[in-house]
Amino acid sequence: MPTTAPRSAQRARILLACAGGFSQEEVARQVGVRRRIVTKWCGRFRKLGLAGLADAGGRRCKPSVSEETRALIRTQATRPPKGRTRRRVRSMARRAGVSVGTVHALWQANDIKPQLTRTFKLSNDPQFETKVWDGIGLYLNPPDKALGLGCDEKSQCQALERTQPGRPLGLGHIRTRTHGYIRHGTVILFAARSYLDGKILSRTAEQHPHKEWLAFLKVIDRETPLGQAIHLIMDNYATHKHPTVKSWLARGLLFSAPEFRRMRGKRYFQTPGRFAS
């Protein structure tokens, strides 16, 4: 529902009160402004009508940096000089003939960050595109009576015991801990998170060969309700593609990639690879 700015409402009340036959002093007392304010807006309305109730444009200084220079600073940020890998604020300022602060303000306003680099790597899986669209389809067109789980494992989880108790977090100081510690071995964490309700299924193991991954799949098989198709989203780790794992998934079932169904209480898993490995 559209709203009216307080200043516009105040000016309208001034005009309505004046139209009602009240004096300017009485109108100023009713609205809570000075008499000169009432005189100003009544005069503006008599001269310009409703357009006179808008704020008049003030005198503004002309921008010290021309639009051509601004365009140069924005476009040349992606074109480093010869022998350089990226533009710098100071070199750009010398190139455009402006101050360092001007370049910094323009880059910040346009979210230009030549100093940052994002790394990426696309999967070399020949079925990468098919799996990408398969994963996107789980979000855009979720299947009926299905459960989507994001699965992964965290290796080398360390059980550490610090040599001395640390100082807890408090007002005016940060939490502390000693540099030395005793490590009580490592553990592997297998986890699957439901995209529907956030429920997490987990299992720990000392190592993560294919046998432990298969045992985790059986945990998922037991803990999820029957009558639902299971869609697993996981990476292309070799353990996930071990022949024994594939044999367990396809044993006694009609195997048809890329989608498997669970029928008559039997479980069929769909295992697309992660979008980018």
Give the total of beta strands. 5
**Considering DSSP H and I runs of 4 or more, what fraction of the residues is helical?**
25-40%
Q: Strand share of the residues?
A: 15-25%
Q: How many domains in all?
A: 3
Q: Give me the strand/helix succession.
A: HHHHHHHEEEHEHE
What class, by secondary structure content?
Answer: alpha/beta
- Note the main sheet: 5 strands, mixed
Figure out the total of helices. 9
Query: Which quaternary structure do these chains form?
Result: single chain
- Mean pLDDT metric: 80
Global Rg: 34 Å
Q: What does it look like?
A:
- This protein folds into three domains: 48 residues; 43 residues; 123 residues, no CATH class.
- 35% of the residues lie in helices and 16% in strands.
- It has 277 residues and is an alpha/beta fold.
Lay out the secondary structure.
Blueprint: H1 6-19, H2 24-31, H3 35-48, H4 67-75, H5 89-96, H6 100-109, H7 128-140, E1 146-162, E2 181-194, E3 200-205, H8 210-223, E4 229-233, H9 243-250, E5 269-270
